Amino acid sequence: MTSGTANLIGFVGMACIIFAYGYITWNDRANPFVQHGVNLLGAALLTVSLLVNMNPPSLVLEGFWAAIAVWGLVKAVRNRNLPSRKREGPGVGQSAGSHPAPSPLPHAGGGK
Questions:
Q1: SS3 104
Q2: Are 53 and 6 in contact (CB under 8 A)?
Q3: Angle formed by the axes of helices 56-80 and 32-52, to 10°?
Q4: How far is residue 60's CA from residue 45's CA, in Å, rounded to a whole number?
Q5: Residues with Cβ < 8 Å from 86, sequence gap 6 or more?
Q6: pTM to 2 decimal places
Q7: Phi/psi class of residue 90: alpha, beta or left (left: φ > 0; alpha: ψ in -120 to 50)?
C-alpha cells in the first residue's frame, strides 16, 4: 500500500470520528450503535493508515479509541436486551430494584 493510499484511508477514518462526535453532540438521544460503530470504524481506518505511516503515540491512541468503542457497543447490546422499565432506571421516589410503595389505607373512625 502506498503512503498516499494510507493517508486517504486515514482521512476517511478521521471523518468517521468527527462525524460520530458531531452526531452525539447534535442529537439528544443518539443511537449508541451509530455512535460507537462509526467510532470503531474510524479507529480501524486510522490504524491502517498509522501502520503504513508509523506514529506510535497515535497508534496507541487509536487502540484505546477502538477499545472504548467496543465497550460502548457491548453496553448498547446489553441495554437493548433489558426490559424497557429497567433500562429507564428507577422512577421518582424509587430506588433501583424496588417497587412503588402501596398507598396507605385510610384510617377508620377517630382516635383517642
A1: coil
A2: yes
A3: 160
A4: 14
A5: none
A6: 0.68
A7: beta
Task: Write down the residue that cell numbers 468503542 correspond to.
Answer: 69
Task: Name the 3-class secondary structure at 55.
Answer: coil
Closest C-alpha among 78, 66, 9 to residue 36: 66
> Which residue is it, cell 479507529?
43
Task: Give the list of residues 6+ apart from residue 41 with CB closer than 8 angstroms, or none.
Answer: 13, 16
Which of 43, 45, 65 is CA-nearest to residue 1? Answer: 45
pLDDT by residue (tens digit) across 21-35?
Answer: 999 999 989 999 999
Instruction: Find out whether 20 and 38 touch, Cβ atoms under 8 Å.
Output: yes
- The model's pLDDT over 83-104, given as tens digits with 9 standing for 90+, comes to 765 555 554 444 444 444 444 4
* Cα–Cα dist 101/104, whole Å: 9
